[in-house]
């Protein structure tokens, strides 16, 4: 089998806003075609024009070859060998950052092809299912221009998520720091107040996590708020401080009774080695596209297993990435949850429309799919509608 063509679809919702927090407004979808008529799909969570350029740019020397040029003619049934070739051949331009995100979409599509060619779902290619289902947690990003509106929106979405059957939810409480919603800058004490309201609303039966999106400038400030959050039984607190302050993360982990999670931005398993070794993170959050595809994500899963940590894959895109996270989760014992944007609560038409037959959630669980590859198909109408 040979790779004959790579299509890169840059997608954007028409009402996108650079003021918005959500990266679900855009997408780069990669389709890889073969000489036997099998095609694979991948997506990645990075600026789609940059990712497309990373794939299509021509190479000029042996340390800076083009991804598309290196891919054409290769046997897609060897995704790991191809990953090494593309990583090595693009190293002077790549290694980390957007090129690895683009390589992740390619790798996802190659595993999809391999599954389809062998008639097997990807979790079987990753070693096989170690569980019958995976639990998606609802990722909830509120709307609103004031603290009160933000709190009310979050509570409303949480109750709706519980109504849809979700057993777990993550509260995006981004009300101060560099990535706040609608430029809110509120006192830290409001974070615990909002968490208290949410816990009271759903009781003790639902798992809750909190993401503060790198809110604090230093570890001690984070620990002060973590102390306030202790009564509310949080499963983890995500990205309290700057992701490049790994000594700060280690300090927080050493002093926090609540698990600390990070990794949504990390590229390659090498960055997760740093995160685990120097940052001491309890919960590693590889995004399958951004980390470099299944080829890299499974190494992160192994790292977590070896060191007694958890992985909870990040996913803020569509049913493509959700399927990828689910397949990794089925094959990984130390993966208790995957991130999931509920269609009706995400305000992204791409999340809603791009995949025609996404993996279904039943009673708060995604059961093992039986279709080969990722097990999903693109909605061609949506692909045309949002292509720019
Ligand atoms: Mg996050």
Write up this protein.
- With 388 residues, the protein is of the alpha/beta class.
- It has two domains: 3-120, 2-Layer Sandwich (Enolase-like, domain 1); 125-379, Enolase-like C-terminal domain (TIM Barrel, Alpha-Beta Barrel).
- The chain is built from 15 helices and twelve strands.
- The protein has helices spanning 48-56, 67-71, 79-89, 98-118, 122-125, 147-164, 189-202, 219-229, 246-255, 268-277, 288-291, 294-306, 319-330, 349-353, 380-386; strands at 3-12, 26-34, 39-44, 133-140, 168-172, 207-211, 234-238, 260-262, 283-284, 310-311, 337-340, 366-367.
- The strands form two sheets. Strands 4, 5, 6, 7, 8, 9, 10, 11 and 12 form a nine-stranded mixed sheet that branches.
- Helix 9 (246-255) links the parallel strand 7 (234-238) and strand 8.
- The longest helix has 21 residues, at 98-118.
- The radius of gyration is 20 Å and the shape is globular.
- The mean pLDDT is 97.
- Magnesium ion binds at residues 211, 213, 238-239, 264.
- The site of magnesium ion has 5 residues, from loops.
């Amino acid at each position: 089998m040979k790779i004959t063509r790579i299509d890169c679809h840059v997608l954007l919702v028409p009402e996108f806003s650079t003021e918005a927090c959500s990266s679900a407004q855009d997408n780069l979808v990669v389709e890889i075609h073969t000489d036997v008529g099998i095609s694979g799909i991948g997506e990645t969570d990075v600026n789609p024009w940059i990712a497309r350029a990373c794939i299509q740019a021509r190479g000029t020397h042996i340390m800076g070859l083009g991804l598309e040029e290196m891919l054409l003619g290769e046997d897609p049934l060897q995704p790991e060998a191809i990953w090494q070739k593309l990583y090595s051949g693009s190293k002077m331009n790549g290694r980390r950052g957007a090129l690895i995100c683009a390589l992740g979409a390619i790798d996802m599509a190659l595993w999809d092809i391999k599954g389809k060619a062998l008639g097997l779902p990807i979790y079987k290619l990753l070693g096989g299912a170690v569980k019958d289902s995976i639990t998606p947690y609802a990722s909830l990003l509120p709307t609103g221009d004031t603290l009160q509106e933000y709190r009310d929106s979050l509570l409303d979405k949480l109750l709706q998520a519980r109504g849809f059957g979700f057993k777990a939810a993550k509260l995006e409480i981004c009300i101060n720091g560099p990535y706040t919603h609608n430029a809110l800058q509120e006192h830290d004490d409001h974070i615990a107040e909002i968490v208290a309201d949410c816990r009271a609303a759903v009781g003790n039966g639902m798992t809750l996590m909190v993401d503060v999106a790198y809110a604090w400038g230093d570890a001690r400030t984070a620990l002060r708020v973590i102390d306030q959050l202790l009564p509310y039984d949080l499963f983890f607190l995500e990205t309290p401080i700057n992701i490049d302050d790994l000594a700060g993360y280690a300090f927080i982990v050493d002093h926090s009774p609540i698990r600390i999670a990070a990794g949504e931005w990390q590229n390659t398993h090498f960055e997760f080695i740093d995160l685990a070794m120097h940052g001491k993170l309890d919960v590693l959050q590889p995004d399958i596209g951004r980390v470099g595809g299944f080829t890299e994500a499974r190494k992160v899963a192994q790292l977590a297993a070896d060191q007694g940590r958890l992985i909870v894959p990040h996913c803020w895109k569509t049913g493509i990435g959700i399927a990828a996270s689910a397949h990794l989760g089925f094959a990984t014992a130390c993966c208790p949850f995957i991130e999931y944007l509920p269609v009706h609560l995400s305000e992204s038409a791409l999340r809603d429309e791009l995949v025609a037959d996404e993996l279904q959630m039943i009673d708060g669980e995604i059961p093992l799919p039986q279709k080969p590859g990722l097990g999903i198909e693109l909605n061609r109408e949506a692909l045309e509608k949002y292509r720019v």
